[in-house]
Write a structure and sequence with these properties.
Chain lengths: 425, 375
């Protein structure tokens, strides 16, 4: 996470890949007394603060531009981030000596990467792709065929990679090759699970991507700020620069901002409407009951407290989604940091300083994404379990029945529904 | 695969776990001349043949009994096999020294195992479980609630395991613990992917489980037999006892038996009907167009003396040919993978539960690939 990288802030903002071997082999010194690790006592902290702030502003700026441009561009950004993460992680446990004897072995990694991408994005975007090409007969038949045999295609690609792997096994390199094979699988699973859930969230409505991501960013930033000014008590041995003050301050801030941010974001149709196809135009839809404001009269004890301060509102209007975002905020502040601890422990176990150095002051892409990954998976599962069921209504289901089912299937549905209701009565 | 374990057949049929350390650490000597390794020339081969045959008969016998008993019992058998496979594989890369410093670390593996089982079987069997409890109002509501929040429950359990892992990280043990964590995930993925597809196949109709499994067994047995009598040319450096004669002979036999077996198996509703709930009674259903015989005119190049001009073919037999092709050509790669793996980590067998064959994983390695392909 960010505090680990304060020491390499000395390097110039434009770090070249040549430096990577030197930086990544530095062992974090665990022998020093705990006090000198805390950010409060670090004299170089102001310089590192500026570099980090500079990179942060650029990242947030670029991110906002892409969100403005839409679902397809955000997905493209996610794919690009994925490729860079996979590359960082593939390169992490390579050993150049063995690699020289195994030409073409690296390509196998990218073959599995491509297969995983086809599988994951094919499943998520197949329906939307079909919706995009409905006007054109040829494309529609091609796409429907691909979707029908999608799983078989991906499986054949995987099996060909598997067979290729076995045929390239070389005497005395077995252990290295099997290790690399397992490592490749683990990387692809970690990278693709979270990116597939991220993309699924995006197409349900940019809100469900933007809110969790923002909460993680806020949690990160405020943990750094609270640690910068107030940090005294170390939090966990794995990350010696994290403090309880930073953790608690960030948790409270994150939950409050979750509540407020959901209100702000929930007012934009661009963010709340799901995208049913792969177009890039403006969206208009009925956002559903979650985003319609409901008025709550402020309870008596708050009124007594704020009326003397000339607080103008006696009731507040709350979008129901704000209660959901409180849960998201709770998760982001309590559980998501464990993603960062995992990454710290991993780096310590394999004696590397950072996963890469693409981002000055922050390390590599994986360093930034470690908490986002845990959050993206939670956001998707939360959305599927607790939000989707609430936003269903008779009209929405009818609409789906009319558009997606054939006449025979509709009749079968009608019969089954009739039977079920008769049994209940 | 089987040929590798030939030398461990000298142990008694009742193998104790105490022997495992000794037999696992024998490193196959690769310096011997290729010739002396082929099964044709192995003088002790008749004794090992008997031991293997004995175990094979027991395994096939037990298998047949369970298939007769039904879908739920086959699923239970799959679950039991899974548990043993996972136990073998979990124990494979343990190091006793590190484990002494990490109490409860083994429990974490089983926590993830339980979570994976809940997730995988919950997804596959949820609809059928709901169909079983429709009669009882209270159970139905309970089961529907569990199904609705199934993914959230499993995710919650996984996150607990994840946090437990991070909180149990001990200085100087990081690398071992991360390695074990990754190893656990790989094992669970391999074991559960193939068992999930197996169970899904079973409930679509026992036929779709029995046919692929039988084809692999037939392929194995005939590769061994052809290698026993005719094997001369080594097939792949990874498994020095496999030969091209065995491979080709087994492929032809497997494809032919696929065609014939599909015909035999396709005539029983017990095997071809899907099971929509978790009951255990007899099944009656309309098996569908795949299992209705259609007349097939033999092509003109068949000689005049052949008695039948038309044969009744179930359409499913053509599908069975594809399965047979896959079983004979690709599935052995599962065995090669296991051989390479054992060679890489210098172990003789995954375990020794089955005399003459090694552990459960040694038997199931080829079964993994066709399972998944079936779906």
């Amino acid at each position: 996470m960010q505090k680990e990288n304060a020491a390499d802030a000395q390097s110039a903002p434009t770090t070249r890949l040549r430096h990577r071997k030197r930086q990544t082999d530095v062992n974090p010194g665990t022998g020093k007394p705990n006090g000198s690790h805390l950010l409060v006592n670090d004299r170089n902290k102001y310089k590192s603060f500026l570099i980090r702030a500079y990179s942060t502003v650029w990242m947030i700026g670029g991110f906002s531009v892409i969100v403005y441009m839409g679902h397809l561009y955000i997905t493209a950004m996610v794919v690009v981030i994925q490729i860079f993460m996979a590359r960082e992680l593939f390169n992490l446990l390579r050993k150049t000596h063995e690699d020289r004897q195994l030409p073409g072995f690296r390509i196998l990694n990218w073959h599995f990467f491509f297969t995983a991408m086809l599988f994951v994005y094919g499943r998520i975007l197949s329906q939307r792709l079909a919706n995009t090409v409905t006007p054109d007969k040829v494309l529609y038949r091609l796409v429907s065929g691909l979707i029908k045999y999608h799983m078989a295609i991906c499986y054949s690609l995987y099996i060909s990679g598997f067979v290729w792997f076995i045929l390239t096994l070389k005497k005395k390199m077995y252990k290295y090759q099997f290790g690399q094979y397992a490592w490749t699988h683990m990387i692809l699973i970690v990278v693709f699970t979270q990116s597939s859930f991220t993309v699924a969230n995006i197409f349900e409505g940019i809100f469900w991507f933007l809110l969790p991501a923002s909460l993680i960013v806020i949690d990160d930033i405020f943990a750094y700020i609270f640690g910068f000014f107030f940090g005294r008590t170390p939090l966990i041995k794995l990350s010696p620069k994290k403090t309880w003050e930073g953790f608690i301050g960030a948790s409270v801030t994150t939950m409050i901002s979750a509540f407020l941010l959901a209100n702000i974001m929930g007012r934009f149709q661009w963010l709340t409407c799901p995208r049913e196809d792969l177009s890039t135009g403006w969206l208009h839809c009925d956002p559903g009951p979650l985003f319609k404001p409901e008025t709550y009269a402020l309870p008596g004890w708050i009124l007594k407290w704020v009326v003397p301060l000339q607080f103008p509102w006696e009731e507040i209007s709350v979008l129901p989604v704000q209660w959901h975002s409180l849960c998201l905020g709770l998760f982001a502040s309590i559980i998501a940091p464990f993603g960062g601890f995992f990454a710290s422990g991993f780096k310590r176990a394999f004696k590397i300083k950072d996963f890469g150095d693409s981002i000055p002051g922050h390390g590599g892409i994986t360093d930034r994404m470690d908490c986002q990954m845990v959050m993206a998976v939670f956001a998707y599962i939360y959305h599927q379990s607790f939000v989707v069921s609430q936003s269903l209504s008779v009209e929405k289901i009818l609409e789906q029945v009319i558009t997606s089912l054939t006449l025979e299937e509709q009749q079968a549905l009608f019969m089954k529904l009739g039977q079920m209701l008769q049994e209940r009565l």
